[in-house]
Specification:
Blueprint: E1 4-7, H1 17-32, E2 36-41, H2 51-64, E3 70-73, H3 78-90, E4 94-97, H4 101-113, H5 129-137, E5 143-146, E6 152-157, E7 161-166, E8 174-176, H6 184-194, E9 199-203, H7 207-220, E10 226-230, H8 250-255, H9 261-270, H10 284-288, H11 304-317, H12 320-329, H13 337-343, H14 353-361, H15 371-379, H16 390-402, H17 406-418, H18 426-442
Parallel strand pairs: 1-2, 2-3, 9-10
Antiparallel strand pairs: 4-5, 5-8, 6-7
Bound molecules: glutamic acid.
Length: about 450
Amino acid sequence: MKAKVRFAPSPTGYLHAGNVRAAIVTWLFARQTNGHFLLRIDDTDTERCKPEYEEDIESSLMWLGLSWDEKTRQRDRNARYEEVIKKLKADGRLYPCYETPEELALKRKTQLARGKPPIYDRTALNLTAEQKDKYKAEGRQPHWRFKMDHEPIEWNDLVRGAVRFDGAAMSDPVLIREDGRPLYHLCSVIDDVDYDISHVIRGEDHVSNTASHIQMFKAIGRTPPEFAHLPMISDIEGGKLSKRLGSLSVKDLRENEGLEPMAIISLLARLGSADPIEPFLSLDPLIGNFHLSKFSKGAPKFDMEELLRLNSRILHQTPFENVNVRLARMGMQELDENFWLAVRPNLTKLEDIREWWRVANGPVEPVIEDPGFATQAAGLLPPPPWNDQTWKGWTEAVKTATGRKGKDLFMPLRKALTGMDHGPELAVLLPLIGREKALNRLKKAA
Ligand code: GLU
């Protein structure tokens, strides 16, 4: 069966790792069923939503390779929402309430003090026409609640298994604000109906919303879709990941951390599932193996170290043609395949290559403490061609000739060749520096 699914972020901040997981899982599910992936921008909260966040959602998804088949925005669908609202009002499923936030808070407090659950008491259902007129005359605008059916609500969640709520134990949710604007819940259900969504895949924080949404689907006259609620990702200490919003946006991982998109995909596609987390170079091999039932109910931990390990393992396998444009944009136009293949096993982030490039090509300020030793070593440099065995052969010859070994042998050579006492592996680096530059650096003080 071809699934029709949606990823429905709210553009109230930069796209966050926790949210991206829902996007990846939803995307893989769509692709595996040869289905349809809808990007839905949930922008009913006009105060908090910003165009720059919507742009960020799109550019982040594109960077990750999560292409969408269709896009919609809730802001553009008000006329349709009004139509459904009219029907629900006529059916008595939406009813006007006049309590102020203070009055509601007081009610809750009283209920809690009496040991009762803080469920809305439906006072508004019993208001007479005169009472309503009186409120209106006072200038109060109603907000509207959805009248829940007091009956059990059950569904078979594709991740959590059987889930059961009792409609009688839930507050009637507010669906329309005082200013007349509908809230996310109603818009989401209407969209899921109109776009024929077959599966709603989203975070566990929506489980209780789903219970009321199921009744809304029925009130609109539609069978609810299937649901899958993914557990929230926690940070390595078990805390809530979303609290660290700024630090784990895709934008940050891309621009500040300089990570590969496939490292993020490789981690989040498998995190908390029965399949092993492995480095993938493209999304395709993840599609075939994907199944929602492999995800467990427990909150998985997001480990930055693991992400970095994946990033380096991905770089180690990345062919030159996948990075050459980026390297050129980073200012290393002359960096060739030979250099890339020699250096890539040493990279954690692509950015690390800058240092290798600089040390190989200069500028390097050689540090020479014992000019005699450096000159002697220079005289022992073998003739070209050089390869990854050249360093070993050369240092053995220098060792034999000078009697130096260990740090006394290697450190002065490193400092002369690179100007530093640490850095990239010299066996790899020496052939990239080449005989001419190596000779010049060793002879600097001679
Ligand atoms: N905008 C909601 C969110 O970001 C959408 C949840 C959903 O229905 O998928 O949490």
